[in-house]
Amino acid sequence: MALFPITGRYVGDFVPLLVAVDTEDTMDQVAQKVAAHSVGRRLPEPPGGPVYDVYLDDRRLDPTATLGSLGLAPMQWLDVRPRG
Fold first, then answer.
1. pTM over 0.90
2. Which of 16, 38, 42, 82 could form a disulfide bond with 10, CB atoms 3.0-4.6 angstroms apart?
3. Per 3-state DSSP, what percentage of the chain is helix, strand, and coil (rounded to 5)?
4. CA 26/CA 61 separation, integer angstroms
5. d(Cα 68, Cα 66) in Å, to the nearest integer?
6. Chain segment 41-82, per-residue pLDDT in tens
């Protein structure tokens, strides 16, 4: 359990974000943390509610995978998109 910095971007927002997440966070939790900085501030909540997916190099990551299990480097770029 450790803080870990990622670069996150909510797709559709023009601002990339430095977000502190935990190595034990699931991708669902990471998505919520990134989206919280864009949705409701610069972008409206997507239809269907606040459910998001995380993408690494256009590959959707398993929503139940933990950040620590993926072996990512600090400051890794992750995209967050509405699910569906």
1. yes
2. 38
3. 15, 40, 45
4. 10
5. 5
6. 999 999 888 899 999 999 999 999 999 999 999 999 999 999
